[in-house]
Amino acid sequence: MPEKPKRNTLLYNIMFVAAGAGIILFLLAAPPETTVKLPHDDIHQKYHAMKKKQAEKFCEKCHNPQGEAPLPQGHPPKYRCLFCHKRS
Ligand code: HEC
Ligand code: HEC
């Protein structure tokens, strides 16, 4: 009976393609990036030139709850600032 296994293979192939298409559609539908970029001002200019990991050591000197520029309420997890606040 060669019929049955063949049908199964076709079914799995269809499922595989459908899952792939679903993932691509999901990624394409992601909202455009709107997170504010790292500013180009006197405070932040120097961090554009540094390595990301190096620069991020300084962010929380000011961006902490007691600092001069606390993060807004409901700010997402803040690990690695520059992955979200891109440099331009
Ligand atoms: C010396 C203090 C200081 C340091 C260090 C600092 N910031 Fe800031 N940051 C500020 C202040 C004050 C503001 C608000 C005024 C402004 O926009 O410049 C601000 C604003 C921002 C904003 C919002 C800009 C906007 O358009 O609303 C982002 C994003 C930001 N900082 C990210 C960072 C990141 C990422 C780092 C580390 C690489 C960093 N900051 C380091 C003081 C600092
Ligand atoms: C997971 C992504 C993510 C990470 C990591 C992250 N942020 Fe944010 N941040 C956001 C989002 C989203 C907002 C909401 C406002 C917006 O769209 O920019 C925000 C808002 C801010 C604001 C206020 C901007 C404004 O104009 O109101 C500052 C300042 C800021 N973040 C600084 C930082 C700093 C400093 C770090 C690292 C310690 C950090 N962020 C890490 C996503 C992130």
Structure description:
It is a single chain. This protein has 88 residues and is mostly helical. It has 2 domains: 1-30; 45-84, no CATH class. It is 52% helix and 0% strand. It contains 4 helices and no strands. The chain has helices spanning 3-28, 45-49, 52-62, 81-84. The termini are far apart. The relative contact order is 0.12. The mean pLDDT is 90. It binds heme C (HEC) (2 copies).
Tally of DSSP helical segments: 4
**Helix amount, in percent?**
40-55%
Which stretches of 5+ consecutive residues score pLDDT under 50? none
Task: Determine the N-to-C terminus distance.
Answer: 62 Å
Largest sheet: none
On the 0 to 100 scale, the average pLDDT is 90
Give the radius of gyration: 23 Å
Number of domains: 2
Structural class: mainly alpha
Succession of helices and strands? HHHH
What ligands does this structure carry?
Answer: heme C
DSSP summary, beta strand count? 0
Percentage of β-strand residues: under 5%
Comma- or semicolon-separated keywords:
binds heme C; 88 residues; 4 helices; elongated; mainly alpha; 2 domains
Describe this structure in a few short sentences.
The protein is mostly helical.
List the helices and strands and how they pair.
Elements: H1 3-28, H2 45-49, H3 52-62, H4 81-84
